[in-house]
Each structure stands twice: as C-alpha cells, then as structure tokens.
Amino acid sequence: MIAPPMRWPEKLGRSLLEIVYPRRCLCCGDPLLFRASLRLPICGRCEQALSPIEAQNRCVVCSIPLISELERCTRCSERHFSFTCNFSLYEYRGPIRQIISQFKFSNRRSLAGLIAGLLYPELERRYPDLPVIPVPGSRRSVGRRGWDPMLEVARALRRSRGTEILTPLMRTRGAAQKGLHYRERMENIRGTIQLNRGSRCSAGLRRPVVLLDDIFTSGATADECTRILRLAGVREVFVLTLAMEL
Ligand SMILES: [Zn+2]
Ligand SMILES: [Zn+2]
User: How far is the CA of 134 from the centre of ligand 1 (A)?
Assistant: First the structure.
C-alpha cells in the first residue's frame, strides 16, 4: 500500500523509533532500518526476490506459463473450467509464499492491506468496473482464526480503492485439498460451497464478477465457486489470484 508522504517531524520521529525498535523483514527477519518508505514490509533483497510470472506465453485459461506457442495448457485443452480465465500475479514461492503464510497461518491480519495493494494494479488494469467476490475460507480455519482471509483482502480493497465487493458465497464444510491430484480435488470440493442466501447482493449477481483468491493450484475451488455463481445468475466469472503453484 502506498503511504501518504510524511512531514519532517513525523519522519524524524519514525527514524528515531526505528533505531530503538527496528521493524523486521517479514521474510528473512532482517531489521528494516530507515526503510520506512518501502512499498512492502520486507527488505530490499527479499523485494528483489519477489517472483512475478513474466512468461511471454501463458495459458489463456488458467494462466500457467507455457514453453510452446500453444494457447492452452494440456489440462485446459482436455477439460473446460466454468470460469472464463484466471490470472495469477506471482509464483507461489519465496517472499510471496512467506507473505501468504504469515497472513493466514501466523494470524497477521494487517497483511490484508499489503496483499490488496499487490492485487490492485492488475484488478484495475483488467477489470476496472467489476465487483469482487472473495473465495470464502474453510469454516474450521475461519472459526479458529476469527476472520476470513480473502474477505479481509476484499475489504482492504474497498477501504483503500473503493472496490465494490459482494459476498454471496459460503462454505458448508471443509475440504482439505493438500496432497490430492487434480481430479480428486475436483470431486473433493464439489458441494462444499453454497450460496449465502442471507447476503443482500442478488441484484449485483447479474453482471460479470471477479473471483478473488490467494493461491491457484488445480483451479478446483475457483471452478466450484463459479458453478455456484452461475446457478445464481452470474453471467461470467474472471478469477484473479495472488499466486500460482506451478
Ligand atoms: Zn528480507
Ligand atoms: Zn491452462
């Protein structure tokens, strides 16, 4: 998130405070001395190690980098996803993996703002006027944590950029996907996401929407969310994810 410029007394106070209590890099733990204006709460070295996917050729559906000149990867040629396309910004490794892990598993709720800041330029470039729907977190983890990660990110987008958010989805039960293959993931997730009838956004569901998630792995979760949204009348679903597990 880009902070507003500081006035000099504020700058001096911040610098003195940093000497006594230096903030630490989220990824490697090094002190962030005098780096208060950094875009991210990580050190310069870790910022350089961020791994945006820069492949020239990416699958037009799931966004996985392709070596060949083909339009679609093998998976997307064989099977049709319900969503129109996914775009992932980073590879799920290095600092991005650390940021997501700190956010979700070390309960650092404040990182929602940072993640929203990373997602926003792509959201604005691709889908400037579309409402955003966060993929709901599993009931168990949301219960344990007390907050829902992607909902927090969506709220941060709304606060800082005025993004319209809709929350028509909810989880009915958990569906641990770790270690499962693509087909197993598809079967495992089926029926675990439902329309949240209590949400007051049915009018918003006539338009195309952007489904927001942190990690794109098999596409199974995004596909199931899309299936439910399509049943609710959503015309088209575009998926935007912070990272892709390659
Ligand atoms: Zn670092
Ligand atoms: Zn693909």
Answer: 29
